[in-house]
Hints:
This protein is 53% helix and 10% strand. By secondary structure, the protein is an alpha/beta fold. The chain folds into four domains: 9-96, DnaA, N-terminal domain (GMP Synthetase, Chain A, domain 3), CATH 3.30.300.180; 123-268, Rossmann fold, CATH 3.40.50; 274-346, Helicase, Ruva Protein, domain 3, CATH 1.10.8; 353-449, Chromosomal Replication Initiator Protein Dnaa, Chain: A (Orthogonal Bundle), CATH 1.10.1750. The strands form two sheets. The chain has a five-stranded mixed sheet, covered by helices on one side. Strands 7-8-9-6-10 form a five-stranded parallel sheet, with helices on both faces. It starts with 8 loop residues before the first helix and ends in an 8-residue tail after the last helix.
Amino acid sequence: xxxxxxxxxxxxxxxxxxxxxxxxxxxxxxxxxxxxxxxxxxxxxxxxxxxxxxxxxxxxxxxxxxxxxxxxxxxxxxxxxxxxxxxxxxxxxxxxxxxxxxxxxxxxxxxxxxxxxxxxxxxxxxxxxxxxxxxxxxxxxxxxxxxxxxxxxxxxxxxxxxxxxxxxxxxxxxxxxxxxxxxxxxxxxxxxxxxxxxxxxxxxxxxxxxxxxxxxxxxxxxxxxxxxxxxxxxxxxxxxxxxxxxxxxxxxxxxxxxxxxxxxxxxxxxxxxxxxxxxxxxxxxxxxxxxxxxxxxxxxxxxxxxxxxxxxxxxxxxxxxxxxxxxxxxxxxxxxxxxxxxxxxxxxxxxxxxxxxxxxxxxxxxxxxxxxxxxxxxxxxxxxxxxxxxxxxxxxxxxxxxxxxxxxxxxxxxxxxxxxxxxxxxxxxxxxxxxxxxxxxxxxxxxxxxx
Length: 451
């Protein structure tokens, strides 16, 4: 379909942006799409400019979405081209114009060590990645990171690349996925440019390879990868690889490659615990300037979403998107509505106030009778305030019912206890972990708690 000759590019881009907001959510839109600017409209091609540091990432990650939204506004023939201050990266039918991108073109600048939240499950992997970034080819070579999807392997891979580019004094870095490596290798064979392909991957100081499990059953690619690996390793160059399983579990990959993967340090990443999940969400909320109406929103998401970091951040983005579309505040009510829609099978019956009281009393080594007493000693008053706070957060009970359950206290006392806990949480961040452990203990079935 031909586009109208009198169509204003700015007006077209405005309509496309509205569609992109609905498709991506406000948080993602503001981070990656808002910085784009419209240059013009040439025939059926919308020309956009992007900051040079994010141009390749936006084209790779959002190219298909950009064209889909453009076509919904401009018609089926619309295309999108993204340009920067250097060579343009154009998306046509979802493919990049450059067959082999420049070494650092695909690094995501947002993935840095500063943005990586360290917990017990990823401490070794983070330390190893940082050591490799500081001393490429000298610390652990190769470094093999393995974990299920969404736990931060790719983040660490990009963080290494970004760190080396920033502080490596000209050290050459290349990041790629096995899928991209394979496609470029096939293209080089068909275009008789194999030597250029080899130079692109062997004339680097640090090679970062994502998703090596996809080497399985690709005989010619495996052979080329093997020689690339050897050439870099023998030259003392750094290799970092990620995979969704241990090297020994890559049964469809040649044994000689598996042996090389195991020759350096193999570090795994475990799912984040509750406190780490909250910390990840807090960092993301700060980064994206999420307007939290209630601080308990992050804890509610972290309690429900335990799969991986990607799902965790995706849940927060969806809550923010609902807030943007409906105008409702980002509070517990909205968050639970969104989470119930996303994870209907995971909704649980709220715990009873008795269950909260017994769990909190046991945690602080008190008898339930002491918790409900009129005693004002600090060793009793604080646990009581915590129990009241959790009763309000985790149950649907009205304030009066909660007060009655805690020794006949009135609703003003309940509100005071909740405010006291909220104030201390704001002033003493370490208390989030303590309350997180209590929430997890409360959510466990009684048999698991030894009751």
